[in-house]
C-alpha cells in the first residue's frame, strides 16, 4: 500500500480515503506519514461506502486520488469498486484499490471498472506464502510514473524504477533494479497455476462456502457484522460475539477444539467481534469443521 501511494501520489495535493475499517484507516495513516493532505470518509460500521456521498466530497474539492479497500478484513465489508471508480473518474481522480483480502476470492475487473492501481498480496485468497505484494497498474498510473516531476523519498518502494525492468523483460532484454526472492516467486507461480486452473469457479466456490457458513451460523443465532448479504465478502466473515460469551472466550474455546479463529480488529468494534477467514484453498470440510466447533460452543451447556 505504501509503495503504491508513495509512487503515485504527488506531494501537497489532497487525497480522499474511503474507510470501511482497519485497512481503510491504514490508507489514511500511510498518506499522513507521506505528508499528504488527507480527507477521510468513514462508512457506518457494517455498511459499504455510499457512491453518492463520495461524489459530493469529490465535487466539493479537487482530489488527486480516491483510495479504497475492496474487502476490509476487520469488517467483512466488500466495497462496490465499480460504482466508486466511476464516480472518481468523473472527477478526474486516480483510483487506488487495496485488494489484499479480495483478489482470488472476489470478481475483479480492473480495466472495466477503470481502476488505476489494484494491489494484493500472497497469503490471503491467492493461498501462497507471505512475503510478496503484487501491483497491477493501468495506463493512467503508468503515465503518472513515467511523467511525474517529483521524486519520492523512498528508494525500494518507488515503482518507477521497475518500468525499465518490465519493458526489458517484454523485449527479451535484462535490466537490473533489485533482486527478487526466488523461493517466493516459485511459490507464487505454483499458487497462480492453481488459480488459473480453477478459473472463475474459484470466486463461485468462495461464495458457496461463505453462504454455507453464514446459513449455519445464522441458525445458531450469531449476527453478521455486515448488514446486507450483498455487501459481505466472499472470503472473510465478521461476527458479533453472542450475549453469553465474550469474543475471547469463544476464540479460546475454538482453539482448544482445534479451530483457530481470529480476534476482531475493527476500529470501533474489535472487542465485540471475531473473524473467520475462509479464503484461499479452503473446502467444504474446513467449513463443516468450523461450524461444528462453533455449534458445540454455542450449545445450551455452554450458554
UniProtKB/TrEMBL annotation:
GO terms for biological process: glycine biosynthetic process, by transamination of glyoxylate. The keyword Transferase applies. It is an enzyme of class 2 (transferase). Keywords: Aminotransferase, Pyridoxal phosphate, Pyruvate, Transferase. SUPFAM superfamilies: PLP-dependent transferases (SSF53383). Its cofactor is pyridoxal 5'-phosphate. Its EC number is 2.6.1.44, 2.6.1.45, 2.6.1.51. The keyword Transferase applies. Signal peptide: none annotated. GO terms for molecular function: alanine-glyoxylate transaminase activity; L-serine-glyoxylate transaminase activity; L-serine-pyruvate transaminase activity. Residues 4-132 form the Aminotransferase class V domain. InterPro entries: Aminotrans_V_dom (IPR000192), PyrdxlP-dep_Trfase (IPR015424), PyrdxlP-dep_Trfase_major (IPR015421), PyrdxlP-dep_Trfase_small (IPR015422). PANTHER family: ALANINE--GLYOXYLATE AMINOTRANSFERASE 1, AMINOTRANSFERASE CLASS V. This is Alanine-glyoxylate transaminase/serine-glyoxylate transaminase/serine-pyruvate transaminase.
Amino acid at each position: 500500500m505504501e509503495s503504491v501511494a508513495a509512487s503515485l501520489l504527488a506531494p501537497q495535493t489532497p487525497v480522499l480515503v474511503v474507510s470501511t475499517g482497519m485497512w481503510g484507516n491504514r490508507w489514511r495513516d500511510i498518506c499522513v506519514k507521506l505528508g499528504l493532505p488527507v480527507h477521510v470518509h468513514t462508512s457506518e460500521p457494517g455498511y459499504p461506502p455510499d457512491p453518492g456521498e463520495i461524489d459530493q466530497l469529490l465535487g466539493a474539492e479537487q482530489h488527486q486520488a480516491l483510495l479504497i479497500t475492496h474487502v476490509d478484513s476487520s469488517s467483512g465489508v466488500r466495497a462496490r469498486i465499480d460504482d466508486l471508480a466511476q464516480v472518481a473518474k468523473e472527477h478526474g481522480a486516480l483510483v487506488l484499490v487495496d485488494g489484499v483480502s479480495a483478489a482470488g476470492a472476489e470478481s475483479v475487473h480492473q480495466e472495466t471498472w477503470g481502476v488505476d492501481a489494484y494491489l494484493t498480496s500472497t497469503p490471503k485468497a491467492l493461498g501462497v506464502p507471505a512475503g510478496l505484494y503484487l501491483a497491477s497498474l493501468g495506463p493512467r498510473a503508468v503515465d503518472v510514473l513515467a511523467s511525474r516531476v517529483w521524486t519520492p523519498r523512498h528508494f525500494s518502494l518507488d515503482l518507477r524504477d521497475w518500468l525499465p525492468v518490465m519493458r526489458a523483460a517484454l523485449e527479451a532484454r535484462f535490466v537490473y533494479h533489485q533482486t527478487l526472492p526466488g523461493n517466493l516467486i516459485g511459490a507464487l507461480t505454483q499458487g497462480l497455476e492453481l488459480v488459473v486452473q480453477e478459473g472463475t469457479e474459484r470466486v463461485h466456490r468462495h461464495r458457496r462456502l461463505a453462504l454455507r457458513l453464514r446459513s449455519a451460523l445464522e441458525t445458531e443465532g450469531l449476527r453478521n457484522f455486515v448488514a446486507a448479504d450483498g455487501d459481505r465478502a466472499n472470503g472473510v466473515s465478521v461476527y458479533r460475539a453472542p450475549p453469553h460469551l465474550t469474543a475471547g472466550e469463544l476464540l479460546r474455546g475454538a482453539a482448544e477444539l482445534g479451530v483457530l479463529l481470529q480476534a476482531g480488529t475493527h476500529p470501533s468494534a474489535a472487542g465485540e467481534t471475531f473473524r473467520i477467514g475462509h479464503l484461499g484453498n479452503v473446502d467444504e470440510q474446513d467449513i463443516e469443521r468450523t461450524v461444528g466447533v462453533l455449534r458445540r460452543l454455542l450449545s445450551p451447556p455452554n450458554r
